[in-house]
Structure formats: C-alpha cells, structure tokens
Design brief:
Blueprint: H1 2-21, H2 23-54, H3 58-76, H4 78-87, H5 91-97, H6 106-112, H7 116-134, H8 141-156, H9 158-167
Helix pairs in contact: 2-3, 2-8, 3-4, 3-5, 3-7, 3-9, 4-9, 6-7, 8-9
Length: about 170
C-alpha cells in the first residue's frame, strides 16, 4: 500500500508541475512567429530601401517593385522566375501591388500597334505606364532596378541576379 501511495504522490507531483514545463511549446510558437516577423521585415527592408533612396511612399515603392517583378515574371515564365520569387519574401504582395495597365492606352498601347518590334518593347512600356499611374518618374526605373538587383544579389547570388536582369531586358 505504501508503494502505491508513493507512486500516486510521484504521479501527482509530475502532473502538477507539467504545465510549468510546457512553456517549451510557447517558446517554439514564439520562434515561428519571430521567423515570420523576420521574413516580413526582410521584404519591408527592400521596400524601405526603395522608399528612402528614391524618396517614394510605400504605395509607390511596392507598386513600382511589383511592376518590375511582373515584367520579369512575364518575360521569364514560371520555372525561371522561381529562384527570383524565392529570393524575395512577400513577393506575392509586391506583385499584387503593381497597378493594372491598360495595354490599349499609353506608351504600351502605341507599341502594341507597332507589330513585332513594338510587342518586344511593350513590357518595358507597361512598367513606365505603371510608374506614371503611381506618380513615379520614369527616370527612377533604373535606380529602382539597381536597388532590386542589389537586394537579389545579396539574398540569392549572382545566378539569380542574372535571371532578374534577363527578365528586365525589355526595360533596360
């Protein structure tokens, strides 16, 4: 009988102290949350760089980056664009921030009517049209490309940067 009482006491003590040791689960959850915050801050780091270096607001920076990335995505296609997408946390939000451009109006509309040569340049013109909608001077396209290029080079390396520049070829 004494053995079972001692065993019961041991079990009770273990059960009663378990919640105080269950904090490992909370720590694990906090680490996952902090990983998400780091990812978000990395993405906002790119946007912040564009904002501070080019004097743009957040909407302009996100929309401008999204326009550049949309051009690269449409030029390269999904398989080649994958490494670029992997290098930029929050890329879906940036792509969604790119304004819709009417391909029948503006510079891109004129190029659409110019035949094959025009269609090869149309992607770059759509970026300029998007910049105009966002209130960004088209002269800021090259510096924004440089910031994006530097970011991708830092996060993913030269091979991915080469893909990005290939995707932005119509603009450069």
């Amino acid at each position: 009988m004494r053995l079972s009482a001692a065993f019961a006491l041991l079990i009770s003590a273990t059960i009663l102290t378990f919640p105080s040791h269950a904090s490992w689960f909370d720590d694990l959850t906090k680490k996952e949350e902090s990983k998400t915050e780091v990812t978000d801050s990395q993405s906002s780091g790119l946007v912040d760089s564009v904002m501070s270096q080019l004097g743009l607001n957040q909407n302009q920076a996100e929309g401008g980056l999204g326009s550049l990335l949309s051009l690269a995505q449409s030029t390269l296609g999904g398989d080649q664009f994958g490494p670029i997408a992997a290098a930029i946390p929050g890329i879906d939000g940036l792509l969604a921030a790119a304004p819709e451009v009417d391909s029948d109006s503006g510079m891109s509309g004129l190029l659409a009517k110019a035949g094959d040569l025009g269609s090869s340049l149309q992607g770059g013109a759509q970026v300029y049209d998007a910049f105009e909608q966002l209130g960004i001077s088209k002269e800021l396209a090259a510096p924004m490309v440089d910031i994006l290029k530097g970011y991708v080079d830092e996060t993913a390396g030269a091979g991915t940067t080469d893909l990005l520049m290939q995707g932005l070829g119509a603009l450069l």
